[in-house]
Structures are given as C-alpha cells and as structure tokens.
Amino acid sequence: MKKPIPPTPLAEALQAYIRRAGLVKRLDLADAVERWAEQVGPQIAAVTKAEAVTPDGILWVRVVTAPWANELSMMTPRILARLNGDRKGRIQGVRWVIGPIDRSQP
C-alpha cells in the first residue's frame, strides 16, 4: 500500500499556481498601485493617487491639478527609478490624469 501524500499548505499551492499561470510579473506590477504613496513620499502622495497599471506596465495616476501633473511629468524618470528599484515587472511609463481624487476608495 502506498504511503498517503500529505496535503500541501494553501500558501504553497497558491504560489505554485501563480507561477504556473505566469501571474508573478502582473501581480508585481499591480503592487506598484498599492505601494505608490510609500514609493513617492508624502508630498506627492498628497496630490496623487495611483489607480491602475496595464499589463504592459503603464501606470495610471490621478493628479489634483494641471500644474502638479506638469511638475510630475518632468519628474517621471526619477519616479520610475524608485518604482522599479526592487520590482520583477517593470513600470514602463506613467500616464498622469487630472481630476479629483477619491480617497474613500482604497
């Protein structure tokens, strides 16, 4: 009689599925949205909100005013360097969208 195979812990099974499905890079890119405020600092975080990232690495960020969007567009290379410092997936660019920021949404 064969010895029964012990069950795999859920965390291990989920990590294996994510690797097999090729989702590691995509989840890493999505983490840029979650860590936006931490990566850019309190001054920029106060006037922006990262909203989404496309599969090809374009990060969409809402900005409260056009002057801020202009300033941030000039800072994009430095911001990309911070965002991509320890990331497997690469943020390729940032699209600055002007409009009100809804802080009630996570």
CATH fold annotation: GMP Synthetase, Chain A, domain 3
Quote the distance from N terminus to C terminus: 53 Å
How many β-strand runs?
Answer: 3
Residue fraction in strands: 15-25%
CATH architecture: 2-Layer Sandwich
Structural class: alpha+beta
- Which of globular, elongated, flat, extended, rod-shaped describes the shape? elongated
Give the biggest beta sheet.
3 strands, mixed
The overall pLDDT average reads 88
If strands are numbered along the chain, what order do they take across the biggest sheet? 1-2-3
CATH class: Alpha Beta
- The ordered H/E elements are HHHHEEHE
- Helix content class: 40-55%
How many helices?
5
List low-pLDDT spans. none
Write the CATH homologous superfamily: DnaA, N-terminal domain
Radius of gyration: 18 Å
Number of domains: 1
Topology:
Elements lengths: L9 H11 L3 H11 L1 H5 L1 H4 L2 E6 L4 E6 L2 H18 L9 E6 L8
Parallel strand pairs: 2-3
Antiparallel strand pairs: 1-2
